[in-house]
Amino acid sequence: MEKVKPTIRGKLVFDSAEDKAFLLYAMRNFKDAVEYAHSLMRKGLKRNKIERILTSRILKNKWYSISAFKKARLYRDKPYLKLRRPQLFSVGGENENGNRNIRFDSTNMVRIKIPSTTGRHRWITAKTQFGKEQIPIVNELVNPSFPYSAGVSLKNNEFRLYVNVPLELYVEHMRKKSDAKIVGYIAGFDFNPDRINMVIIDSQGIIRDIQNEDFPEVTSPGFPKEKSETIRKEKLAKLVKYARNHGVKYYAVEKLSKPKPEGCRNAKRKISKMALKQFIQQIEVLVPKVNGVLVKVPPAYSSVSAKIIAEDLGIDIHTASAYIIALRGYKKIQKNKKQATADKLRPQEFCFLKN
To answer: Given 26, 240, 251, 350, which is the most exposed site by the fewest CB atoms within 10 A?
Structure first.
C-alpha cells in the first residue's frame, strides 16, 4: 500500500482574466492527455513510450506528462475513460524539494507553469484561499525541504487547488488537543461500505463501550461517489474523536487483503474494496492527530469467529467482528511489548578483533 499523503484544499482567485484562460487551456490539455494515456496503456504501450508521446503531442512538458500517466494509471481497470471536468496535476519528485510546476510564493500566492509549443513556458499567478488551520502547513510549502504534489480542479465554476503533503507535516500542525485522560484502551473497527462498528475494550479484554455508525444511503443506486466518500470520512472521524475522548490509545483495524484476480464483475465486492481502502487511508491520518497508535491485524477467519461470538454475546455480527479486531490488536500490542522487553534484557554481544 502506498504511503498516505493527506490533502489540503483551497480556492484560487485570479486578478487576470488572461491567466485564468491560460490555466483552463492547460487543464483541458491535461484532461485529454490522461484519457489518451489510458487508451495507450490499454493497448499495451510501455510507460516511457506513453510519456514521450504525451510530451510531444499534447502537454509539451515532461513533468506534466509523468503526472498524466500516473493519473491514468488510477483508471487502468476501466475499459474506457472519459473524464467529466478539466484538471491539472503535477506530481512531486521523490528526490526534489517543492514542485516543478506549481509553486507557492507565499501563503496566499501561487505560481502555475503553463507549457508552450515554442518551449517558452509561461508562469501565471493566482491568489490562494485556505482555511485558517491550514495556513501553517501552506507556510511550510513556500520554501520546502521536501517534495509535494499539487493539482487544480474545476467545480461549480470555481478553481480549486489541492496539495498532497507529508503525513508527518500534516499531523504536526493538525494534531487535536483533548483534556480527556488516555488510559490505554483499545478500539477495534469493523469497516463496511454502509456502516462502521467500533468496540472499545480495556487491558483485560472487557468491553467498555460500543459505538456504531450506519449510513445505508451511500450504497443506493446512483448515489454520488464523492458524497459517499465524504459521509464515510465524517462518520469515521466522529468515531475516532469519540474513542479519543473515552481513553483510547490504540486503534485496531484489519490489514488490507491482497487484491483478488481481475475478471469478477461483482459490483458489491468492488464497492467494499474501495470503501475499505478509503477507511484505512483516513484512519492512518486521523490516529496520529489524536496521539494514538494504529495497530493493523491479520483478517484471517474474523468473519467465522464473529458469528460464534455474536451468538454468545447477543450482539450483531459486525459489532462482534469489531470486538475480535480489538482483541487481536491487544494481543499484538502485548507481543510487541514482550519482544521489546526481551531485546532490552538480551546480553550484548562483543566482537573481539585480533591484532
So the answer is: 350
